[in-house]
Amino acid sequence: MIGKKRRMERLFVGPEKRCLMTPLDHGAWLGPQKGIDNPKDIVTKVLAGGANALLVTPGFLKQVESVITPDIGICLRVSITCGPSPEGKQEVLAATMETALKMDVDAVALSIFFGRGAEPEMQRTISKYIEEAHRYDMPVLAEMIPAADKMYDIDAIAHVSRLGMEMGADIIKTNYAGDPEAYKHVVSSVGLPIIIAGGENKGGEEGTLEMIRDIVKAGAHGVAIGRRVWQAEDPEGLVRKMKQELFK
To answer: Whole-angstrom Cα distance, residue 50 to residue 7?
Structure first.
């Protein structure tokens, strides 16, 4: 097993072929907030809880490589927010394909945040990156996020997710709309593994676990829950409960 198949098998595991990903790529956007201010500590906790994949930036990965075991899937964020800059409408490229290959990661992640402006420019950037990534059998995760006023609108989510598929991405990361039956249409119309973003911590721990139960019913392929985890009092315990819901 080589190339893209090997990489995808490390991201989507078990008989269910699902992914329990912890995004820890918030530092450029939010700064070194409590929970992600000690990279090795939070990675140790989420891996102990059972996360099988991480979404991290190149610099973060260098910080934590000593505590990551070879079986953990790594999705490298190669487009990063400009942080506090008022000009940061979309993310900018921060790592090349050469960097991703040298770091031996399992996928690269790029994002489009609709409603902010400069979406066509980011679409061109992602499309070019997808072409290059596919030459090296590197899966591309496209994070497709609807505009702020339609963040959890089922039609908007379906549209941006389908755009990611049409562009040639291998994995879609997007929001959940709250209705598992309605969300089945998003899953079927995209035809790619869909990973649900966690977003802000709404509903507490039970709200997070209920969302995982829902997305399993909807046929999504996993979750990428970051803030709800690293802002939790017990990140390891929460990830362990998430794993029980996702893989039972």
So the answer is: 19
Q: pLDDT tens digit string along 68-78?
A: 999 999 999 99
Query: Which positions ≥6 away from 89 have C-beta within 8 Å?
Result: 113, 116, 117, 118
| Cβ contact 123:167 at 8 Å | yes
Question: What is the number of other CB atoms lying within 10 angstroms of the CB of residue 2?
Answer: 7
The structural domains of the chain, with segments of one domain joined by +, span 3-247
- Dihedral (CA of 14, 17, 18, 24) sign: positive
Closest CA to 109 of 82, 84, 138: 138
Residues 48/236, Cβ–Cβ less than 8 Å: yes
Distance of CA 214 to the CA centre of its chain: 18
**pTM of model > 0.70:** yes
What's the CATH number for 3-247? Answer: 3.20.20.70
Residues 169-214 have pLDDT tens digits of 999 999 999 999 999 999 999 999 999 999 877 778 999 999 999 9
DSSP assignment of the chain equals --HHHHHHHHHSBTTTTBEEEEE---HHHH-S-TTTSSHHHHHHHHHHHT--EEEE-HHHHHHHGGG--TTSEEEEE-EE--TT-TT-SS-EE---HHHHHHTT-SEEEEEEETTSS-HHHHHHHHHHHHHHHHHTT--EEEEEE--GGGTT-HHHHHHHHHHHHHHT-SEEEE---S-HHHHHHHHHHH-S-EEEE--S--SHHHHHHHHHHHHHHHT--EEE--HHHHTSS-HHHHHHHHHHHHH-
